[in-house]
Amino acid sequence: IVEARTAHGEFFGEDRLVDFTRRAALAGLPAPETLRRLTAAVLAHQGGRLQDDATLVLVDWSADARHRLFPTLP
């Protein structure tokens, strides 16, 4: 993801990735929504198409993560 480039060669970069995930966490977004939005941001950065393979993994490590991800489970 950090190596995703624009047509002019600008990387998505680590700073942009950290900023994106930090803002998503502050907004209280669940991991699946954060991944969906990050995927959209990377695609937009690259003009709508992937130029290489991409891997996204996001771990939600907290005591209430299960309840936020699966609110209908007991």
If you had to describe this structure to a student in words, what would you say it looks like?
The protein has helices at residues 14-26, 31-45, 65-69. Helices cover 45% and strands 0% of the residues. The protein is mostly helical.
Order of helices and strands: HHH
The secondary structure category is mainly alpha
Question: What is the averaged pLDDT score?
Answer: 85
How many strand units? 0
Instruction: Tell the overall outline.
Output: elongated
Gap from first CA to last CA: 35 Å
Number of helices: 3
β-strand amount: under 5%
Topology:
Layout: H1 14-26, H2 31-45, H3 65-69
What's this, in brief?
With 74 residues, this protein is mostly helical. The chain contains three helices and no strands.
Which keywords apply here?
mainly alpha, 74 residues, 3 helices, 45% helix
